[in-house]
Amino acid sequence: MDNELIKSFYDHRNQEQAKKMSAYMKDNFAYLGIQKPLRGELQKEFFKKAKNNQKVNWDLIYMLWNLPEREFQYLAVDYLLALKDSLQKSDLDRVKRLIINKS
Fold first, then answer.
1. Residues in contact with 56: Cβ distance below 8 Å, sequence separation at least 6, in sequence order
2. How many structural domains compose the chain?
3. Is 15 helix (H, G, I), strand (E, B) or coil?
4. Type and span of the H or E element at 39
5. pLDDT (tens digit, 9 = 90+) per residue, 13-68?
6. Contact at 8 Å (CB) between 76 and 95?
7. Which of 23, 86, 90, 97 is the most exposed, fewest CB within 10 Å of its CB?
8. What residues have CB less than 8 Å from 20, skipping those under 6 apart?
């Protein structure tokens, strides 16, 4: 499912918007040009299934975090927020790793 979601993000890229978004962030990050409302629609079904699983998939989070486009870091954060009730105290070091890397 995560590969389908990643492909869906790439399929919905908007080069013109991506340039604007990147410029706004002083060209520190690459973007696909997908704004939040569309991102929300694209990830909705994925989050429904993820909530049913009730377990944070850290491999998925790290994979998303390592993709070059910023929307994937946003997706990883949204995923964590969707599963916040499933986070454990032991996950704190993992969250810290994300904060330090591509903050």
1. 80, 83, 86, 87, 91
2. 1
3. helix
4. helix 36-53
5. 999 999 999 999 999 999 999 999 999 999 999 999 988 888 999 999 999 999 99
6. no
7. 90
8. 33
